[in-house]
Every structure is written in C-alpha cells, then in structure tokens.
C-alpha cells in the first residue's frame, strides 16, 4: 500500500452527523449504508477557492471509479451566510456537484474527524476504517494510486461491493442566465448592437426578469427620462455578461432581457474558435465557468486582434474575444493550475515573494483561477486577480509579457511592499481616477488598494478588513467596519468605491475621503459584481448595475441620496479550540511526498513554514518564516486564548531521478500548501505538542 498516505493505525470512522443531506433524493445516509464502498469525505465550504479546486480535481476520479468510490461532501461553513441551507443548495447546483453532500452547520462531523482546515480529505476503506487524512489541494495523483490499492486489497478480502452509488441528481433550474459572474458595459459601436441585427437571439423560456429582486432598492430604477428598458440599445450600448453556470457569455440589451448574442457553445470545456453563431457557423468555442472580463482600449484591441479579455477561471486561462467576428482565442495560460513556486518565484525566508516578469510567452505560463480583470492605464496592461494563488498578475496584450505585480502567495491580510503583501482570494478589481487599483479580497472580507507610483512600483494598503476569520455587517469607520466575502468593486463618480458585499446580500460604499463605510442597498441574493452605468441616471446620480448571481439576473440599483448606516455586529469564524499549555509548544507538520515524487531541493530546503498569532503577544518566540516543517514555539502565560496562524509549504517533483539522484529539468512539479488558523485555549494541563497533517499520517 502507498505508505505516503496510509495510516498504520486501525481507526474506525465516525458517523456522519449533520442537519440535512443534498443530492440523495431526500434520503439520509450513514456509514453502514456505505459499507463495501471506498468513501472519500471532502470537508469543504463554498467560499473557498482551494475547495473549488478540489471539486474539479476529484471529478475524473469519481468518473473513473464510479462503481466503487463514493465521495461525500461535508459542508462545514466558514461564514455565517454559508450556514444558510438555501445558499448551500444554490452552491451545490452552481458548482455542478454530482455526489451526496452533508450539511454540517454546527461542525459536528468536522469535529469528529478533527478537521482543521478547508479543504480536508479523509479516505475510509470498505470496512469503515480511516486510511488517509489529507489537507489542502493537489492530492489527486496520490489518490489515483491509493484507490486501486484499496480495490485490490478489498476485492481479495471479499469486502468490496461494486455498483451504483447513492447520488440522486436534483431538479435543474433553467433561464437565460445561470449564476452569472461579472458584467461589462459595451459602448455603442463595440457590441453587436452597433453592427446591426446579425447574431441576435431571444431570451427564450424562463428569461431573466428585468430589474426585479432588490428589496427596497428600486431595482428597476427609473431615470428622469424613463425606464432603462425603453432606451435604444444601438444608441446606448449593451451589456456583456459571463453566464458562468452555462459556461458562456451573453450580450444583453439595456432591459437585461433581450439577448443580442451569445458566445460559447454552452458546454463546459476548453476550445478556441467560433464563439458566436455568425454567417450560419455554429459556435464551437468552450469556456469553463468564465468570470471577470474587460474591454480593451480600441488602439490596444486593434494591435492584439481581440476586444475583450475573459478570466476563464476553471480553465486557468485568459481568453480573448473578438466582437467583430465572434472568435475566442486563448491568450494566457497553458491550462495547468499554478501550484509550484520554484526557483525565483518561491517565497524566501523573509516571506518576500517574487514580483516581476514571469515570461514573454504567455501560453507557457500556469495560472490559477483568474477571477477578475481590469485595464490599468498606469501599467498599460490587464491586471488580473489570481484568486487561486492569492496574488495579482498583469498581462500586456501587445508584447505578451506576464508578470506578478503583488502578493507573495501566502494567504492572509498583510500590507506593505508588493512582494511582501498577503492576499486571500482576490476576486474583484476596479481602477480609480488616479490609476490605483481597488481589490475585493474575498476571504479576508476586505477592500484593499494597489497604490501604483509613477515608476510602476506597487504598495498594498487595506481600507476595510481585519483578517481571514473576521467578518460581519457593520458600517462606520473603515477600521471597525465589516464585510462578508465581497466579490466585486467599482469606483463611483465622486471617487468612492461601491462594493458587492456578496454574503451580506448588499451593496456597500467606502469613501476614501472620510475613511467610512455605508450601505447603499440590501436584500440582494449573492451580488457578485457591481458596475456604474453612466448612460442612465436616477436624478443626478448614475445607476448601478448589480449582478445578482443567485437570482440569475442583472438589476438596476439607484444610488440613494442618504446611505444607510447598519450595525449588525462583527463576527468571527467559530471553530473548536485546542487546549495547549503556556511555554514551549512543539509544532510538527507532517508531509511525505506521494509515490513517484521527490522533494524538490534544487534551491535548498523545499519546505517552509510561516507562523504568527492573534493577538501578536500570544507568540513569545518561534514566529516568522523559515524553512523546515518542525518548529518550537513559546506561548505567553498571561494570554488566555488566541489563534495560531500557520502556513506550510512543500515542493515536490515527478519523474524518476537521474543517475546522480537529481530531479530531471523537465520534471513536472507540484506545490503543496495549507493555511491553518488554529484557535487555542491556554491551560496548564494543555498539550505541549501540536501535529498537523499536510499530507499523510503515521
């Protein structure tokens, strides 16, 4: 058996306990009903980009071993909104999860399996014993070795039962849009409306309701000159929307109901070529959950050969779309998820990451879940929110140069010089009048700013937000205000920033002049983007266009003359506290490279930990960044409780070693990383040792 992931102890799996089951046809499951199957528990939460990566990593394994493997998603929420069963059901549908899901809002099953991080995978053999415990993503290759070993062992013992699993598909929803992600205004002359009626379609059955669903916000807001739906599309432009759940783009008229053109076949995948039905040519281009998009300046578009840049998130690529001939082209990304930070791009012992140009050959660069894009007039490049690696990239459409401009790849909230800054799943971008870039940093529930000087040097500052586990719904001074997993930002005419505060179902405003936060609209269903529509107004103010993802629509929201002031409190993610003793604490992170891989020591020790604490006074000694996965910490005796923030990394490469025992230059390499926030309770009889699993168990 694979010693890299197998535990040597026979540990009986705990029962699966929660509020409800999804994708089972209304039936409850227990381990007895799953006996004879290899069971893979996937502890996830739907805000987490690493969890979404794991969903995609597991799909081929679920298909390959469909008669023996049962994946059970154990949804253990981080944010308050994620504990809403309606929101969870929408997420299961949105991400096309085709296995049973246990709703575990009280973290009962999470605690029973001592999960400490999202995502965590636990493998249970057909006899009901735990055989592997894995943290983070990137474990598909190891599982592809382990599962056949378990099949062989239990077929020989007669304990393996082949056959269909307990998954029952839910009823599908239909409509013009399905969980739309982002939207882009196309001025007159650049969308299909400015080129006549060729390629126009109809919304069809279940078309999007124009402007409904924003409670008390006047979502179908009328201007002094009439409703937006009455405007002439050819005169006033149109809207290009990433129809994320349908894996395509849709161009809508200003009524948000008339479909002018669609781009993409609507089938999940990756393919370049015709994306729109033009001149009787059927679209063959494919996208995979497209998200952000940006319209290039006309002079840049003329040189690049395409008009729109699209963040094709699950394909880990940027795509270019020509609005003239409707063709889609891959412009950045080789399709391999960016996991490894070797050589010059690895974080050093001072937690300083590499910033600068990666390559002038954009199709050779690996990306990781690009989520939004914006044009930077100062950098003369497309700026990319690289959610999967917690960084900000750039791309020059003319030269092809790809660069990292901010973020060292560690997950969290830390300001300062670009190469030292931490982000946590940046998901929305907007440029202000000074050429600075505002960032919706979703997992820290924060609004950050990239301050770009005349020489292109970037400094990161935080306007709103405290940390990975702090969120809420509170207006007021930015230092005290709280958001909940924001996904979109836009800059208003007065220089303030409108925020799609996704999990609070609201549009918020941050005013840099006063440093305060207020609320513009509430009652929205997971707003994922917000855009200023300068072509329509409500009184003296332009209208906002909000992408209301879970209502599958775009809505107009007027900017109120008097913003609301809301204080529903600040919250923290609640997880079980580990009892530890004051004084010395021995920390061990276990990692063994999977079979067929070797630790990549070509640039020194390929393992690394960064440790800090909240409050900072909790950690007397042992903090900071250094190589190795063993560390002696010293905890203060006068601090009753706190959180240890631990990030561990290990780099390993595939392929047989050469005659000198070295990794071949052409070997495929992988980065294993996990970020833990361990709540601790200090007590004299507490533990003096803390062991975490990055990969495998003893």
TrEMBL record:
Chain intervals with Gly residues compositional bias: 191-204
Bias (Low complexity) ranges: 220-234
Superkingdom, taxonomy of origin: Bacteria
Coiled-coil regions listed in the entry: none
Keywords: Repeat
UniProt signal peptide: none
Pfam family, one: NHL
Record has Repeat as a keyword: yes
Domain Thioredoxin: 5-152
Annotated region described as Disordered, given as residue ranges: 190-234
PANTHER family registered for this protein in UniProt: NHL REPEAT-CONTAINING PROTEIN 2 (PTHR46388:SF2)
Name of the featured protein: NHL domain-containing thioredoxin family protein
Organism name: Pseudarthrobacter humi
């Amino acid at each position: 058996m694979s010693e890299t992931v197998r535990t040597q102890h026979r540990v009986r799996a705990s029962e699966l306990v929660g509020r409800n089951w999804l994708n089972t046809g209304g039936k409850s499951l227990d381990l007895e009903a799953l006996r004879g199957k290899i069971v893979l528990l996937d502890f996830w939460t739907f805000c987490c980009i690493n969890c979404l990566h794991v969903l995609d990593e597991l799909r081929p394994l679920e298909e390959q071993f469909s008669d023996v493997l049962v994946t059970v998603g154990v949804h253990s929420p981080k944010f308050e909104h994620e504990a809403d069963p309606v929101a969870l059901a929408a997420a299961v549908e949105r991400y096309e999860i085709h296995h049973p899901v246990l709703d575990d809002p009280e973290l009962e099953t999470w605690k029973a399996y001592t999960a400490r991080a999202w995502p965590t995978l636990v493998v249970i053999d057909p006899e009901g014993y735990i055989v592997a415990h894995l943290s983070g993503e990137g474990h598909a290759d190891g599982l592809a070795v382990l599962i056949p070993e378990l099949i062989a062992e239990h077929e020989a013992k007669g304990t393996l039962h082949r056959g269909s699993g307990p998954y029952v598909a839910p009823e599908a929803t239909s409509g013009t849009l399905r969980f739309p992600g982002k939207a882009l205004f196309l001025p007159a002359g650049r969308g299909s409306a400015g080129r006549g009626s060729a390629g126009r379609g109809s919304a069809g059955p279940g078309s999007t309701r124009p402007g409904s669903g924003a409670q008390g916000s006047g979502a179908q807001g009328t201007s002094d000159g009439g409703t937006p739906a009455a405007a002439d599309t050819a005169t006033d432009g149109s809207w290009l929307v990433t129809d994320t759940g349908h894996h395509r783009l849709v161009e809508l008229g200003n009524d948000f109901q008339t479909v002018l053109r669609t781009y993409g076949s609507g089938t999940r995948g990756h393919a370049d070529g015709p994306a729109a039905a033009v001149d009787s040519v059927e679209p063959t281009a494919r996208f995979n959950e497209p998200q952000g998009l940006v319209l290039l300046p006309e002079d840049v578009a003329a040189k690049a050969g395409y008009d729109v840049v699209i963040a094709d998130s699950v394909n880990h690529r940027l795509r270019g779309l020509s609005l003239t001939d409707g063709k889609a082209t891959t412009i950045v990304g080789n399709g391999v998820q960016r996991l490894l930070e070797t050589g010059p791009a690895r974080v050093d012992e001072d937690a300083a990451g590499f910033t600068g140009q990666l390559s002038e050959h954009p199709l050779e660069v690996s990306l990781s879940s690009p989520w939004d894009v914006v044009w930077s007039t100062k950098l003369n490049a497309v700026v990319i929110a690289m959610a999967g690696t917690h960084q900000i990239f750039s791309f020059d459409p003319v030269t092809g140069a790809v660069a990292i401009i901010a973020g060292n790849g560690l997950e969290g909230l830390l300001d300062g010089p670009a190469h030292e800054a931490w982000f946590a799943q940046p998901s929305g971008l907007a440029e202000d009048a000074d050429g600075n870039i505002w960032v919706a940093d979703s997992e820290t529930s924060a609004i950050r700013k990239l301050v770009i000087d005349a020489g292109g040097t970037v400094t990161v500052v935080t306007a709103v937000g405290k940390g990975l586990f702090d969120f809420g719904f509170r207006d007021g001074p930015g230092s005290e205000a709280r958001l909940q997993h924001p996904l979109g930002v836009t800059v208003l005419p007065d220089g303030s920033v409108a925020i799609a505060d996704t999990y609070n179902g609201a549009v918020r405003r941050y005013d840099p002049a006063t440093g305060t936060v207020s609320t513009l609209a509430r009652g929205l269903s997971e707003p994922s983007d917000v855009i200023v529509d300068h072509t329509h107004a409500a009184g003296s103010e332009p209208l906002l266009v909000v992408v209301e993802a879970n209502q599958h629509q775009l809505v107009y929201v007027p900017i109120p003359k008097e913003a609301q002031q809301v204080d529903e409190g600040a919250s923290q993610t609640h997880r079980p506290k580990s009892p530890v003793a004051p004084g010395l604490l021995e920390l061990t992170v276990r990692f063994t490279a999977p079979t067929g891989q070797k630790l990549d020591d070509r640039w020194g020790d390929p393992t690394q930990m960064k440790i800090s604490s909240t409050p900072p006074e909790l950690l007397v000694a042992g903090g900071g960044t250094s190589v190795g996965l063993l560390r002696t910490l010293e905890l203060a005796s006068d601090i009753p409780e706190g959180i240890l923030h631990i990030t561990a990394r290990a780099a390993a490469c595939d392929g047989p070693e050469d005659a000198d025992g070295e990794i071949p230059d052409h070997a495929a390499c992988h980065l294993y990383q996990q970020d833990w926030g361990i709540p601790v309770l200090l007590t004299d009889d507490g533990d003096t040792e803390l062991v975490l699993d990055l990969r495998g168990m003893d």
